[in-house]
Amino acid sequence: MIRQADFFLEGNRSGVLLIHGLTGTPMEMRLLGKGLNNAGFTVHGMQLAGHCGDTDDLLATGWRDWYASVERAADAMLEKVDHLFVGGLSMGALLALKLAADRPQQVSGVGVYGATFRYDGWSIPWSARLSFVLPLLKKLGLGRERVFLEQPPYGLRDERLRAQVSAAMHSGDSTIAGLLGNPWHALADLYQLARQVRRQLPQVTAPCLVAHASEDDVASVRNAELVMRNVSAPAKLLLLEDSYHMITIDKERRTLIEHSARFFGGIAATSSPLAAAA
User: Fold this and answer.
1) Distance from the Cα of residue 240 to its chain's centroid
2) Does this model's pTM top 0.90?
C-alpha cells in the first residue's frame, strides 16, 4: 500500500520542485528542501508515482507515469509561484531535465543533483554494469521478479547516517529510505528514460547547477559531464569532494543548500517571471 510522504513548505513567490530518485522517497530531499525554505523559497518535495509502497506498486508504473506525476506537481506549483525551479536527485535529475526541456517557458532553472544516466560508479558490480540490456529483457517479459539489491555504502560517506539508512531500508517502511533493491523492470524504465533525456538535453535552455560527488559510488562524474556538454544553457559544475551519491543528505549537504539557494536566488532576482507566460 502506497503511503503519502511528500512535503510542502510555504515561502515566497519563487518555488522549487524537488524530485527524489528511483525506489527512493521524498525524505531524501527534505533536508535540502528545509534549507531552501529557510532561504525563502516555497518548496514541494513531491512523490513519484508508484513509490513509497512495495515492489509491486513500483512495477505497476513506468517512467511515463513517473514523469506524469512530475508534470502534475509542476502544474500545481505554477499556481503558487512566479518562478519555478526544479531539482532532482539521481533519476530525479533526469526527470527535472526532461521537464526543463519540455517546458522552457515555465522552468527558470534546474538543480541537477547526482544525475544518473548509467550506474557506473565505483561500487557497482560488473554484472550490474550490463543493466543496459534490461529494456530488452523487460520487452521479452523476462526477469520481472529479479532485483538488484542495494549494497553498502548506500550512496553515503557519512557512516552514522549510512547505518540509519540501512536500518530504515531493512525495516520494511519504504517511506523512510525507499526500497531495499532496484527491480530489473524498473531499471529498464530508467534506461528508457535516460535515452529519451539524452536526446533532449540540447532543448534545455534554463540555467543548470550540476552538482555531483567526485567519488560518486553509484554514478560516475561522467554523468555530470554529459549534462555539462549537451545542455543549451549556462551550466555551473559543483563537485563535492567529501560525499557519495546521496549528496542531498550526505556530509556536504549544507554546501549543496548554499550553492542551490544562491543559484536559484540569483536567477529569480535578475529575470522576469516565467510562469505567467506559460
Assistant:
1) 17
2) yes
